[in-house]
Every structure is written in structure tokens, then in C-alpha cells.
Amino acid sequence: MVYILSDSIGETGEVVAKAAASQFDSGRVDIRRVPYLSSVREVEEALLEAESAGALVVYTLVRPDLKEYLEKRAHELSLPHVDIMGPMLEGLKQITKQNPKYQPGLIRRMDEAYFSKVEAIEFAVKYDDGKEPRGLLRADLVVIGVSRTSKTPLCMYLAHKGIKAANVPLVPEATPPEELFKIPPQKVVGLTIKPSILFEIRKERLKTLGLSQTADYANMERILTELDYALGIMKKIGCAVIDVSNKAVEETAARVLEIYRKGVGR
After folding, report:
1. Are residues 244 and 135 in the same domain?
2. Alpha-carbon gap, residue 66 to 37, rounded angstroms
């Protein structure tokens, strides 16, 4: 019988106990997890249970006060006990010259943040440039604007913050997807830009593609038409509008995050 005592979920202790048990003939061990220990009283109760069961105590406590109490009481009760986290923390402390945070459950939070980021990046790719309009209703945030207002880079930047962002290009000849008007306004952000700056950006884009710079795409009259149309859509939705003229993606993202956090709080 092995009791796993933890101030988190106790998964680490259980994995180690099972790995060790596999080295014995039977390979079996009865395990009882006692997770989320947060007080000396709870540790005491768990130790008394383990004593009555004649169990081995395996612990992954990171809180110094609980760990110290457990070790003292286990000695008093003559309970065999094994510290899983302590030696590793001490080893890392020596080579990093830093003190541990002593906060339970940090690895789960790190894993959750990582997978949230990966999921958000996949989302941004899947719903980039107006693809799959039905996905807009699943987005944390939807970015709209004319071509070359940095919608995609912004969505990818937000994805690295764990925010599922989709973007929709606004073109006078194409009716915006109906899903766009079903989203709460606080979850939509419109991007606009000064016509002269957009004109230069589009000219450079055409040059990069090896196309004629006289194309309608970089025509000032066309640009003005697109921007007016886009602002009309943004006004209809009632969303926040950000002028991205001469702004780095990071600057725009900081403003978008501010808007997003206020919206989430509603």
C-alpha cells in the first residue's frame, strides 16, 4: 500500500511509485492519492491513515511548511517515507543559484498555457483571411479591415498570447459573412490606415509580386473607396477601430489586448 501525499494532484508521485513497483516480481501496488493538501491538519490526517494501513508514504509537497511537518511526523510515527520533489528542487537550486517558487501545480499551468497557445495558432491559420466563416462564432476575437492592414500578423501575435483570433478582409465587391454581424461588438476590432500609407504599402506589394504598379489594387481612388466601405461596416457592427498607420504589430496588439480584456470583463 502506497499513500501519495501532494499539495497538487499527486500524479508525479503515482507515476514514480508505479515505475518503482514494476521492478518487483508482482509489479502491483495499491495506491491511494491524497491530493491538494493545504494545511498541517490535512497532512496529519493523511499520515494517520497511512500508519493504520501500514503504508509507504510518497510525497511531492513543494510547500516547505507542509513538507517539514510531514517529515517530522513520519519520523515520529516510524512511517517509511520518500520525498520525490525535494532532491530535484535542491539540485536545480544549486545549478541555477535561484530559489524555487514553492507553488503547487505550476507544471499543469505551464502545460495548459502551452497547449492553449498551440490551439490558438492553429485556429488563426484555419480562420485566416475569411476562410470558414462559421468559425468566426468560435473566435475569442475577430479582426476586420481592408487588405494590407496587418490582420494576419496581428492574429498570429495574439495567438501566441493564447487568444483565438480570426480575420476577415473587407472588400466592396464581397458581402461580409453573416456570422460577422452575430458576434458581440466587443469581440470585433476594425483596423484602418491612412490612405497615403496604404498606397505605398500596396505599391511595394505589387513590386514584390512582379506586377504592374498601375494595377487597381494600388490606385488611390480605389483605396479611398475600400477604406470608406470598411469604416461603414465597422460602424454598422459598432466595434472598436484602430488606426494602424506607422504602428508596429506589437503596438497594435497592445491596444487590441486592452480592448479584449475590457470586453471579457463585461
Report:
1. yes
2. 8
Residues 100 and 146 grouped into a single domain: no
Decide: residue 24, CB within 10 A, 0-12 exposed, 13-18 middle, 19+ buried: exposed
Question: Do residues 155 and 165 lie in contact, with contact meaning Cβ atoms separated by under 8 Å?
Answer: yes
CA distance 42 to 82: 18
Last residue of a domain, one of 75, 104, 133: 104
Give the domain extent around 86: 2-104
- Look up the pTM and report it: 0.62
How many residues are recorded in the chain?
266
Task: Give me the phi and psi of 119, to 5 degrees please.
Answer: -60, -40
Share of the chain above pLDDT 90, in %: 66
Q: Which of 48, 69, 104 is the last residue of a domain?
A: 104
- Rounded to whole angstroms, the Cα distance separating 262 from 186 reads 8
Query: Per-residue pLDDT tens for 68-86?
Result: 999 999 999 999 999 998 8
Grid coordinates representing 118 are 498551440
Asked if 89 and 114 sit in the same domain, the reply is no
